[in-house]
Design a protein that fits this description.
binds beta-D-galactopyranuronic acid; ten-stranded mixed β-sheet
Length: 430
């Protein structure tokens, strides 16, 4: 009994010391009054000091310049070498989800010879469509089998980093089936006439510091002609999202001109980098992507560059970390990442209790990126102050903050579906 007590005390002490050390070395702040003044790099200022005045100048000069800054400072080089992915439809069910949808499971082989290098895509297409369906593409956190309870969805056998929820020794068990249905409002999405394509991000690279040794940064280094340290886990995940598009372009039931990309949290960061790197994504949604995604790094609030690069060094290019204690010197900030989506529709969303992602910092970067949308004659955020809860603002860039915690909720999906329907030209289910 006494031993037990001492042991508990020791654990508590260890925990408190660790917390104190963390607080000291990697301070975080969630007090708005403590946010220091900062100056953002001007997204329209050309390297020669002049200001971009036209959409043409943006596309031809400033956009490539900013994109390359992102390669150098945050995500690493994006592979330019094209691959010929091969696809195998593993399973089809035209009466999935009580007959409302057709389910397909497609294996995308990424290596020209090695068939062990692949990603599995789970696709649901609404039945009864008169024309090809627009689609939402997005990664899931813990395997395709978590987004639905359907028994025939293959149980992922990959390494999983998230504990609990039916994951035992970093592998999924049957108990994890359907554990993330709340994050994917499948019925609502399908009812609105949208298809859904999802894959487990760990198919590309396990989300851990040494994940690159078994992921595509190693298995495809010759094929893509890029060394693991030239890019990042975010880069690998972003690249994988584009391979889903390669497949979707070949599926006659999908409207490849209406591919929307969605990502939550770390997968929101990957989605933004994918959206920046691949113009085939016609609309991009950042759901609480936070630091390294939509939130301004210069605003000292919530997660910081220092904290994120200490916890997740593999996510980013090595240079990013070197700005941890001098973020004002970083040549980029989140508004510049968002501006790389222009003139495509972009939705940035936050949750009020998700202080770690800095909702206001996400709003402010979307507002700042509006300058680039204006070059294209598109309406941006259109207001200078954070809107009240559940009141989306903006035009081609839209923003909302909702009640609640860090998650993708039905409310979020309803806004994205409405936005995509509107931006893709009216009613999509016909
Ligand atoms: C957190 C990380 C965030 C966010 C989040 C998530 O631990 O600090 O940047 O990416 O994980 O992906 O859920």
């Amino acid at each position: 009994m006494k031993n037990n007590h001492t042991c508990k005390l020791a654990v508590l002490l260890f925990f408190l010391t660790a917390m104190a050390a963390r607080a000291q070395n990697f301070p975080s702040n969630i007090d708005e009054s403590k946010v220091q003044p900062y100056t953002l790099p001007d997204v329209l200022q050309l390297p020669n000091g002049k200001t971009v005045t036209s959409s043409k100048e943006w596309q031809q000069v400033q956009r490539p310049y900013i994109y390359h800054l992102y390669e150098e400072y945050q995500f690493g080089r994006y592979p330019t070498k094209k691959i010929n992915s091969r696809f195998k439809v593993l399973e089809t069910d035209s009466k999935a989800l009580d007959g409302t949808a057709t389910r397909k499971q497609v294996r995308i082989y990424l290596h020209p010879a090695d068939t062990s290098v692949y990603m599995d895509v789970l696709l649901y297409i609404p039945n009864g469509m008169k024309s090809p369906a627009p689609v939402f593409v997005g990664y899931n956190f813990s395997g395709n089998h978590t987004i639905t309870t359907e028994k025939n969805v293959l149980l992922s056998n990959r390494w999983m980093n998230f504990k609990g929820k039916g994951v035992v020794n970093n592998r999924a068990t049957e108990a994890s089936r359907g554990t993330d249905t709340a994050g994917w409002s499948l019925n609502t999405i399908l009812e609105k006439g949208f298809a859904v394509a999802t894959a487990y991000y760990g198919d590309l690279e396990p989300d851990t510091a040494t994940g690159y040794t078994t992921g595509i940064r190693t298995t495809l280094k010759e094929v893509l002609n890029i060394q693991p340290n030239e890019w990042s886990a975010m880069g690998a995940w972003a690249w994988g999202l584009s391979r889903i598009v390669d497949y979707l372009q070949k599926d006659s039931h999908i409207d490849a001109g209406k591919i929307a990309l969605i990502g939550h949290s770390r997968l929101g960061k990957a989605a933004l980098w994918a959206g920046a790197s691949d113009p085939r994504f016609a609309l991009i949604v950042s759901n609480e992507s936070g630091e390294g995604g939509a939130a301004l790094s210069r605003r000292w609030y919530g997660e910081t560059v220092q904290i994120i690069t200490a916890h997740f060094p593999h996510w980013f290019a090595a240079k990013y970390k070197t700005y941890g204690d001098n973020v004002n010197a970083l040549p980029v900030d989140a508004h510049m990442l968002l501006s790389l989506m222009a003139p495509r529709p972009l939705y940035v969303a936050s949750a009020v209790e998700d202080t770690w992602s800095d909702p206001k910092g996400e709003f402010l970067s979307a507002k700042e990126a509006s300058k680039v949308y204006a070059l294209f004659g598109k309406k941006g955020i259109g207001t200078d102050s954070l809107p009240p809860l559940h009141q989306p603002v903006g035009g081609t860039i839209r923003y909302h903050i909702r009640a609640g915690k860090h998650a993708v909720t039905l409310y979020d999906w309803e806004q994205y579906l409405q936005f995509a329907t509107e931006q893709f030209g009216g009613k999509v289910k016909s």
